[in-house]
Amino acid sequence: MNTFLLLVPPLINVLVTGAFAFVILRQYIGRRRSYQLYWSVSLLMAFIATLAYMAMLLVGPTSVSGTYFFRVYYALGGAIMPSWLGMGSIALISKPRFSRTCVGFLLLLSLIAATFVLDATINMPMLSHIAGTPGTGTLNPGPWLVMTILLNTLGVVAVAGVALISGWKMLRRQASMGGTKTSNILWANIFIFIGAILNGAAGTLARFLGIVSIFWLIMALGWIVLFIGVLLASRRSRQATTVMPKRTSTHVTQP
């Protein structure tokens, strides 16, 4: 019973990130936007990482397979994932050439971070009590910690910064864009900003304040808020794409 209750918060994260990844992947397949690809990569990382966490609890954290699942969880979810979420935000507002340069740099950092996590020494007594927590302190301090803090910081700053900049620009533009009120687009950016802050706060509270019992609940709330923001933004995109064919069709049929 206790094991089942401990699996509920991660399960919520699995469902939310899985649905989120499915939506963004569908958008990427239909529109081929680079930022949708990078967001999809990030969300798939979060999805796989949380599945690995649940698998670790089911097989036993200190078992051989359990330690393997823990490293996968920590490498993807703890170290690398936030930076790719931020990469999607950067690609949303930057030129393709700059985005490609950032992707190349991020690929190198991600590989280094993953190597450090896979090579780090595990504190087995801490790992045995990981259930219900993010696993803070389970890896002995080393180079992986520097890379994790760096990638997490870059990711949160990118997502939150782009959301704030976009929201500020919307306030200074006309009252409506593409059939959607500017206030609705602004709300999308506000939700994305709050979601990014919640996800970043979950790890910060666990690492620096020792608040670990509500980590998964905060993460679930952060993903849900981010999901709402992306859905609001994509609703505007769908409306814009439905307007364009009408204009093109009217232009073609004119004598």
UniProtKB/TrEMBL annotation:
Keywords on record: Membrane, Transmembrane, Transmembrane helix
Keyword Flavoprotein in record: no
Residue ranges of the TM segments: 6-25, 37-60, 72-93, 105-124, 144-165, 186-208, 214-234
Domain of life: Bacteria
Protein name: Histidine kinase N-terminal 7TM region domain-containing protein
Taxonomy of the source species: Bacteria, Bacillati, Chloroflexota, Ktedonobacteria, Ktedonobacterales
